[in-house]
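Incident log, structure service

09:12 report received: a user says their structure output differs between two submissions of the same chain.
09:20 pulled the input from the user's history:
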Amino acid sequence: MSERTKIVLDESKLPRAWYNINADMPVPPEPVLHPQTLEPVTPDFLSVLFPMSLIMQEVSTEPYIEIPEPVREVYRLWRPTPMFRARRLELALDTPAHIYYKYEGVSPVGSHKPNTAVPQAFYNKEAGTKALTTETGAGQWGSALAMACNFFGLDLEVYMVKVSFEQKPYRRILMESYGAQVFPSPTEHTQYGRSVLAQTPDSPGSLGIAISEAVEVAATSGGVKKYSLGSVLNHVLLHQTVIGEEVLQQMEMAGEYPDIIIGCTGGGSNFGGFTFPFLRENFKNGKNTKVIAAEPAASPSLTKGKYAFDYGDTAKMAPIVKMHTLGHSFVPPTIHAGGLRYHGMSPQVSALVEHGYVKARAVPQLDTFKAAMTFARSEGIIPAPEPTHAIAVAIEEALKCKESGDAKVIAFNLCGHGHFDMAAYDTYLKGNLEDYDYPEAAIEAAMAELPQVG
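09:34 re-ran on a clean worker, output below:
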């Protein structure tokens, strides 16, 4: 095996196509349902929110979809991203395991989110869209879409979960620097936002509420504005597979192949982008990589949620999909991993977990920051709170190797840096950070509000 630490692909190796796991899913897809009629949605209904090119990607069963050259041109600003052998972390843990991480924090906005923001902006511009609306939790997605809209000349309205708006002011400033308008959700700008504030004036917000506001603005714009989503749906995870396709090449350069791969999960975009190409190798080419989805114990959709049809938003305006869900009325605790505070999970990821192809693990907040400090003090990178969940599981697996003596190859996706998250680290270092387990009683209450799908 090579002794290199940093494994870098030449620009000529930038993937030319995204991988569509729909072509190889071992379980049949469930229909997407209309939120009012509960019947399968039509392209006409979806076209209120999305351009037809993205709708066709959403339902495609083609294994590969070509990446348009204007998108690849923007990708070249940061892609291919580097992969690292975490040798210093291995030494700190005294483990025989070989640990690798893909580093998406080198993108201009510091996360993996531009991998889908750029193509979504491109396809909307191509379709004649004038402006986009979206939601954001921690601000990673909003920042990425703000940059992409700026590149393609589109206006953008961002509805940012209020608690994150207050916790992470620099992400708001970053979005505004690219020309976006940013509102703390729930807002007075929408009918749904006003109804939430009337009932709960001090609401901290949630991704479900912010999605409802962004969807309402797009749906009532008369076609001038479209809605853009940063996770959950197939076309979003599809665009992110550029990550995993690069990692396959980089692992070959390293002379190894992962026994275990790990990604953090909130809606599924980072996890799917990293793991879906490896799942293809499991399904089609006889590989046997263990795939682990790491989620917050405070928003445990995969480990405690029900696998059922549910609305994608709080106001019941977005399509209904079958997924692991905590219930669309879920209002999460104010944990710092704002990008993972969603009530549901990607339908593909949910089905893969439900049928045993992916293992899910919930990680308490204190454990994630402990892992982050171990990683930062050995590898030097301060991770965003979201990928600390993957780091915690990677460390756990590496310590199992220490006990067993197995030199397993472990890989995870470091999907963002934590430079705008220092308030969270300050809270942890001062001993003021607390764990939070989402109560079973709250989940059971939310289950009573699921749509009654026959």
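09:41 both user submissions now match this output. Likely a transient worker issue. Closing.
09:42 reviewer note: Residues 6-14+68-110+236-447 form a domain with the Rossmann fold fold (CATH 3.40.50.1100). Residues 84 and 382 are 15 Å apart (CA to CA).
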